[in-house]
Design goal:
The chain is globular and about 60 Å long. The longest helix is centred in the last third of the chain and has 18 residues. Strands 7, 9, 10, 11, 12, 13, 17, 18 and 20 form a nine-stranded mixed β-sheet that branches. It is α/β, with parallel strands linked by helices. A hairpin with a 4-residue loop joins strand 17 and strand 18. It has 14 helices and 20 strands. Helix 7 packs across helix 14. The chain has two domains: 99 residues, Rossmann fold (3-Layer(aba) Sandwich); 204 residues, Dihydrodipicolinate Reductase, domain 2, CATH 3.30.360.10.
Length: 398
């Protein structure tokens, strides 16, 4: 396997550091449009299997050229989702397999991932695999959904992804642990929900607030509906009645996002500022600290998980929360990267290894739910020392 990884930010850096400990690939090409990011990461890795490349993710012709120059077999996209389609289409043209951690963006009348799924038959006919949404959320959360469907439930009422953390950043009142550009996109777009008798529909931003009690000392966090890929992916492969995604944002974070929206600072449309054309959202991203650079200031844990309700294999009502927790102190000590990007980066590495060994295989535009969950969870533990949590929830008697 020869891998081209586009993006040398937080997730791209973490993925390379994790990959360094594995032997399933021959070459790992680190690509980014900022030359210094590439050179610094290559020097940090100190491994001849890793090479660097300066590359513009929006330039499909350049991506195709890089694929051919390095005889790439698989492309891993870990960059801003604005560039999904340029990379996806370059892979289609070059005849290689593709993987991402976030899908093509939505717009009025177009859901997350619709542009990719529109090419499903063409990818299948060529024998190419596009494994989409293979980070942590989406990604590991979807693997949990498949595991619950196959092994824990005979009938599923709801699959609800619930994400929460108790992370704090020393010296900052507001410092998101993930890309603020992507966070704004997810949180201020109309959230999407799926129901069997309605299909996909949207609600208002920050709707259906609930308090969810997260494990491993994180505790209760207010969660709200957010636009996310799991709601698009899960019902394509898993029989259930409802799918939701709720993010633990908290009042303060929600307040900041609402203010940005009120002021128009969430807009991606360029405005003229003293003769310079600039996107307000890009300005916000530029003035906030780079999430990849604040790990040493962060403390706490982040939890990604999937809450499932329905009837167990015995036909009795059941509620289960399957989850994974990453502790920032551990990820910084072990890999030198913060917990959120490390947790995201770990899962595509597991998936790539399963593809390299032939344990997973397929063609077309697929989500994590399309594959057997057990080999993934077993490799997650055996290769990376990461066990997943399983919490049985109390079922209220009617």
């Amino acid at each position: 396997m020869r891998v081209l990884v586009i993006g040398a930010g937080g997730v791209g850096t973490a993925s390379a550091l994790i990959a360094k400990r594995r032997n399933f690939f021959e070459t790992w090409v680190v690509a980014d449009y900022v030359p210094a990011r590439v050179s610094e990461l290559i020097e940090r890795l100190g491994d001849d299997r890793f090479v660097g490349l300066t590359l513009d993710a929006g330039d499909g012709t350049a991506i195709e050229a890089a694929i051919r120059e390095y005889s790439i077999t698989h492309v891993l996209n870990v960059i801003d989702p604005r560039f999904v389609m340029s990379i996806f289409n370059a892979c289609a043209a070059a005849g290689v397999h593709y993987m991402d951690t976030a899908m093509s963006l939505s717009r009025p009348g177009v859901k997350l991932g619709d542009e990719q799924f529109a090419q499903e038959e063409r990818w299948k006919a060529r024998g190419q695999l596009a494994l989409c949404g293979m980070g942590v959320e989406p990604g590991l959360a979807d693997v949990f959904a498949r595991y619950a469907s196959d092994h824990l439930f005979s009938e599923i009422d709801e699959i609800g992804v619930r994400d929460g953390a108790n992370l704090v950043v020393d010296g900052y009142d507001f410092a998101p642990s993930f890309s603020i550009w992507t966070t704004i996109e997810e949180c201020l777009n109309d959230p999407i929900v799926w129901e069997k008798n309605r299909g996909w529909f949207t609600t208002a931003p920050f709707s259906e607030s609930e308090i969810f009690d997260f494990p491993d000392g994180i505790g209760p966090v207010e969660c709200v509906n957010v636009e996310h890929e799991e709601v698009v992916l899960v019902p394509r492969w898993i029989d259930c009645k409802r799918v939701t995604f709720k993010y633990g944002l908290g009042d303060e974070f929600i307040g900041v996002l609402k203010t940005l929206h009120t002021l128009g600072l969430d807009s991606t449309e360029p405005v003229n500022v003293r003769g310079v054309s600039v996107s307000p959202r890009d300005v916000i991203a530029a003035v906030l600290p780079d999430p990849a650079s604040i790990g040493h200031l962060m403390h706490g844990k982040t939890c990604a998980g999937t809450w499932v309700t329905g009837l167990g294999k015995d036909g009795k009502p059941r509620q289960v929360y399957l989850y994974h927790v990453a502790d920032n102190d551990w990820t910084m000590q072990e890999f030198g990267v913060q917990a959120v990007v490390w947790q995201t980066a770990m899962n595509p590495l597991v998936a790539l290894e399963l593809l390299a060994t032939g344990v997973w295989s397929g063609s077309g535009v697929l989500g994590p739910e399309a594959f057997d969950s057990v080999p993934f969870l077993e490799l997650l533990e055996s290769a990376h020392g990461q066990k997943f949590g399983h919490r049985e929830e109390k079922v209220n008697a009617k």
